[in-house]
């Protein structure tokens, strides 16, 4: 964990909520509330319920709708908290120590796994808060490990981590509006080439990770062709929504591609990969330098990483030119980009089913390469 990163910080909204309940129910501050026990067992009566509701409305600056004020709302501390949380902005329900100091929260474009806000604090500083109530418990901790690998071993500029828990991640704020200059994209290309110069003799990672809300399988394998086939193509073919979107001929075509990978892709060592490298995961520092966010790290071919940059909202050609000045690519790399981009098409199908033109693009790759 980065020095200075705080884990399991106090949950400010819950602390305020519990303070109200302790005061009105006459409980000592040291008493640990059980959210499943009926509040009547704590001595709740109708007058106390009215006082609790009034205190919560004052403290959180909300109003409970009349239709929400029912006996069941006051059944337990858990049911009362659920009713309160429905009225709070999502960022206020996350376990961050800075929530009480926020004066403005600007929603940002996030991934499929979480919501994102840029927070402005009372001292004028800005931070980025990511959070979700449905994210896997290890999603944010694994993201921190990935950032640490990219910033340490990989030498990339990444945002500083402030806090992390199972439900949130608080980061240094970066600029999502990128400089529209060739200099920026050249610097990004050189940075990614330097990242890919860090090599390994195996493919995978020490643990599985996440791509969106689905596991990214990273079990170690000795060969890149086998790894790409098993962990990046066939792994998604087993997903229910992919099975629904593709027919048996599509699956057979993907299996033929997997068998032919040694003839289609030249051998290359494993390189340190960001793992989800597309334009949306490149941001800028205050000085206008490229920085990188939202990793799904692994050791894999450099070309498989570049396929996402090439096929998804590609950046300036200066990115690829500067990359090759540092690390020249093998002949035919552009022709291989659609093949190596299969992982992303399959991941979209696995999450959302047959949306957009992803099925047709998969079939085009099958026609070309199988």
Automatic annotation (TrEMBL):
The keyword Transferase applies. Residues 11-88 form the Carrier domain. Coiled coil: none annotated. Transmembrane segments: none annotated. GO terms for molecular function: transferase activity. PROSITE patterns: CARRIER (PS50075). Keywords: Transferase. Pfam families: Fructosamin_kin (PF03881), PP-binding (PF00550). PANTHER family: FRUCTOSAMINE 3 KINASE-RELATED PROTEIN (PTHR12149), PROTEIN-RIBULOSAMINE 3-KINASE (PTHR12149:SF8). This is Aminoglycoside phosphotransferase. It comes from Streptomyces hainanensis.
